[in-house]
Amino acid sequence: MSFRTRIATLLASHAPTLTVHAHCDLPCGVYDPAQAKIEAQSVKACIEKYNGSSDPDFKVRATIIKEERADLVKHHLWVLWTDYFKPEHLAAHPDLHDLFWKATKSAGEAKKTNDVAVADRLLSEIDAIAEIFWATKK
Questions:
Q1: What superfamily does domain 27-136 belong to in CATH?
Q2: pTM score, whole prediction
Q3: Percent with pLDDT over 90 in the chain
């Protein structure tokens, strides 16, 4: 061990411990329900294109993309639910848990169907979550 390393170690061992507190992992500007909504809009567009095509190869591609996008919807919703929303948000908006549960279930259902109504419901549920999200940002 070099003399410089020994001095640095000695100084560090006698330095006071600094405790820091953060309310989130990164600045709160990184969270936005728009990410989930964009992916949900892609899900709807894939369903519409699937329903409008008679090409079986195109339908397979549309289904694969739709399923990937639906997974991304769930990912973005869970990031909001687990990383952004806090107990005080749930206290102020008691239906928040149910909204997330319904939206993630709708995203899962969208993977299994080509019904535009499911995609529309998913978009509506994301809009309800977004309304609460923006209310908490005031």
A1: Nickel-containing superoxide dismutase (1.20.120.400)
A2: 0.79
A3: 76
